[in-house]
Amino acid sequence: MLDINFASLVPQIFLGLVNGSIYALLSVGLTVIFGLLRFVNFVHGAQYMVGAFLSYLLLVHFGLGFWVSLAVAPLVVGVVSAIIERTMISRLYSIDHMYGLLFTLGLTLVVEGLFRYWFGSAGRAYVVPDILSGAVNLGFMYFPRYRLFVVLASVVLCIGTWLLIEQTRAGSYLRAAHENPQLLRTFGVNVPLLLTATYAFGAALAAIAGTLAAPIYQVGPFMGANIMVVVFAIVVIGGMGSIKGTIAASYLLGVAETVTKIAFPQAASMAVFVIMAAVLVFKPEGLFGRQE
After folding, report:
1. Which of 14, 32, 47, 248 has CB atoms 3.0–4.6 Å from 206's, for a disulfide?
2. Distance between alpha carbon 150 and the CA centroid of its chain, in Å?
3. How many domains does the chain have?
């Protein structure tokens, strides 16, 4: 018989929102790249890990705090990713998707191997910034101020990304670059530049997620590999290419995963994949996806 009470359930729900916030940023970045470029970016987890490591290195070796890292790490990862996209990945768009999958998977292994060689396999702690230390009294519980900041920042960034893609002229150009690039070129739009910017933007979101995750989880070379299995499941559940579905699925899965740890601790690690299997059976296109 389950022994669940309100006092133990509410903290787990809020913890699930924190995990869901990291999932959401990663999943939205992945969805932007897939939805607009039709490219499965397996190196996304490595970009998340590099963002976390850059934040750690900026703090330890240069004395730069969290706020500087939150700006610098995504910028560096975005610029490097743009160079990789323009010089290598862009050559794979016109051929079988399997080549892109294999290339990004191989690139992931190279990046993880280099960081393991340089820094070892052990995780490294990143200190919470002073201004966000301590806890906030929510009336019914005390909640860490930094984790509340992560939830709010993720919600703002995810909704902002959705509005950018779906509600602005720039977003309409990005969608058109995928749907009808030839027509867009006739209007003088630099389509390759748009595709590069899209990929860099998705990679930057992964780096932001890594920077936000650094004070919560330990920074290590395999942190991206551990989380990306769940993130790919979330993208499938929300609907491939659907930003709105990805955001909803991220928070739903984050809460479901942590609540399951109370109800069925042995099955907590399987909760995401049970939900994914159910969605694929009853709604193969995902919660908010569209049938092709």
Report:
1. 47
2. 13
3. 2
Q: What is the DSSP letter of 219?
A: B
Are 274 and 175 part of one and the same domain? no
Q: Are residues 175 and 250 in the same domain?
A: no
H-helix segments, the chain: 6-37, 44-62, 66-87, 97-119, 145-167, 169-179, 181-186, 191-213, 223-238, 243-263, 271-282
Q: Which of 25, 21, 12, 15 is nearest to 73 (CA)?
A: 25
Closest CA to 43 of 52, 57, 30: 30
From first CA to last CA, the distance across the chain in angstroms is 44
2 belongs to a structural domain: no
Query: How much is the pLDDT for 4?
Result: 55
- Predicted confidence (pLDDT) per residue in 139-165, tens digit: 777 889 999 999 999 999 999 999 988
Question: Would 292 be classed as within a structural domain?
Answer: no
Q: How far is CA 110 from CA 74, 78, 188, in A?
A: 20, 18, 38
The residue among 182, 201, 220 that closes a domain is 220
Contact yes or no for 287/248 (Cβ under 8 A): yes
Over residues 195-242, the pLDDT tens digits come to 899 999 999 999 999 999 999 988 999 999 888 888 988 988 888 878
What range does the domain containing 207 cover? 28-220
**Contact call for residues 194 and 10 (beta carbons, < 8 A):** no
Domain end among 186, 220, 254: 220
State yes or no: pLDDT of 6 exceeds 70. Answer: no
In a domain, 23, yes or no: no
Distance CA 73, CA 9 (A): 35
Highest mean pLDDT of the ranges 51-55, 58-62, 251-255, 275-279: 51-55
